[in-house]
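Morning!

This is the sequence you dropped in the shared folder:
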Amino acid sequence: MLDAAVALLPVVGFLAVLFMMDSFRLVPQRAILSAVAVGACTAVVSLWAWSALGMDLQSAHVDSRYVAPFLEETLKAAVIVVLILRGRAGFLVDAAVQGFAVGAGFALVENVLYLRTLGDAPLALWLVRGLGTAMLHGGATAIFATLGRALTDRYPRRGVLAFLPGLAVAVVIHAGFNLLPLPPVLLTGVVMLTLPLLLLFVYERSERATREWMGAGMDLDIEVLQLVASETFTLTRFGQYLQEMRSRFPPEVVADMYCLLRLELELSVHARALVMAREAGLELAGDDDLEDSLAERDHLQEAIGGAGRLALRPLQVTSHRDRWHRQLLAQARRRATTAPGGK
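The structure's back. Tokens below.
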């Protein structure tokens, strides 16, 4: 029991600390549990791949030292790529938390396997596995996630190519842990010293970015929303651009474009208000108005079609986190429908 606790609990405890450090509660508990479960699945896929390739993961040969870091980090990274591209991680901190959760799930399965096959090993091995290797899995994936989020923010048009530098860093860190000619206990100490410092830096940067997104971003959204609703809207560049669209689209489609532009601004303000409430310790569920607004947005997007949505892109006044804040609103809608008395 002591061996199992030492091998499994440190990475779970550190994940819990990361969750509690997030003052904005950007990642709900359900998302963390899902990330851990998916990470565990990637470990199963990795073990199957080792078996299919006829390699011995527990050996000290070239396959465990060089091939394992690339294979394992690529599998974990694929999960993070999907999360970021689907708008499930809008800031560095929620990317880091979900990245660490995926790595934690991977490490838990791997350590359970070691406990079954090396049950008679000394406690020192489980200290290294629990405080070193498991934390390495979580930390390497968290680093990949933060770099991936940062680079996709800076180079949004590069798609999956923006994730390659982060993958290279994660593989190098993992391989370095396997290859450095240091005692395992010393390597474990290095991981425990550097990982918290790195994640504290990420949290500080993300908190600042979140406050900017809430403060200046909300002010801008409200200002533009007032402009869109004003009588002088047709004199602005937004109004003139929509007037030009009349030569390319039917009048009813242009009217839907205007409604969608205004509705997206309203929803953006709503999303920022939800994050502000979370920072204050409140968890706001979506009301009927939010349910209706999200349904109307879906209807308007379908009504204007793909060409209309593409034509509206130059008027997009909110940030690259649009997809993320839509996910946030969808979570609020789900909480409203599952709450007592909900729909």
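Headline: Residues 184-228 form the longest helix (45 residues).

More detail when I'm at my desk.
O.
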